[in-house]
Amino acid sequence: MFKRFKVSAALLLGTLGLLGLAANARAQSAAAPATRPTVVLVHGAFAESASWNGVVARLARDGYPVVAAANPLRSVKGDAAFVAAILSSIKGPVVLVGHSYGGAVISAAAVGHDNVKALVYVAAFLPEAGETSLGLSGKFPGSTLGGALAAPVVLSDGNQDLYIRPDRFRAQFAADVPAAEAVLMAATQRPITQAALGEPSGEPAWRTIPSWAIYGSADLNIPAAAHAFMAKRAGARRIVEVKGASHVVMISHPDQVAAMIEEAATATAQ
């Protein structure tokens, strides 16, 4: 009988252990979403896909699939169509993120895409129908971008490409980024056409898709007052102003930007 009792006790302890493991697995499953949405990142003017590197590293660490799109920066309608094609290729939910002019692009690209569950605007434009990036940047005082631009590069179709002067790049665009990094950013900046900045926007996706917004208080491209106005008008669920941050808040404060993206992903998980 003593031996049988020892066997029964062992079986009991083993069963309890298995039940404990199963309960722990269920708790972990309940605490985490079944699938992570894909995060699509869209850079703006004078930047490029690598400007998201710090954010991508944090999102990837936390298990999010990420696509950093190479925004053409040619026209709002054309750039939105390019991003929309990427959205159509993704199975499952998407959190769509735009920086600067990229905000106008994602506002158009997400229209009609039911898989886009959240929009995150990072120092970005949230245009209303008919508004332009140029018009919004000048709606409130504080933008000094015009004086920092180099002479336009005239294209074969008569359009003009705009660049920020290398000697003004850091002060204008990335004042809170290390000087050596800002030099590289100035050399690799992607130009935008003047026509794109002056192109009226269509009906914005933020009317029907939940939005979040984060920007820097020291943004010299789009004044902080303009950011606050646009985000409040769009009914953003959360608005964060990062004190002292420049226009490239995703480079200088990747933790805060990634945290907002993950917040949007969690809040809209189904």
The helix fraction, in percent, is 40-55%
Structural class estimated from helices and strands = alpha/beta
* Spatial strand sequence of the major β-sheet: 2-1-3-4-8-9
**Tally of extended strands?**
9
Following the backbone from N to C, one meets helices and strands in this order, namely HEHEHEHEHHEEHHEHEHEHH
Low-confidence stretches: 1-33
Beta-strand portion reads 5-15%
Count of alpha and pi helical runs: 12
Shape: globular
Radius of gyration: 23 Å
Mean pLDDT: 90
Distance between the termini: 55 Å
How would you describe the oligomerization state of the chains in this entry?
A: single chain
**How would you sum up the major sheet?**
6 strands, parallel
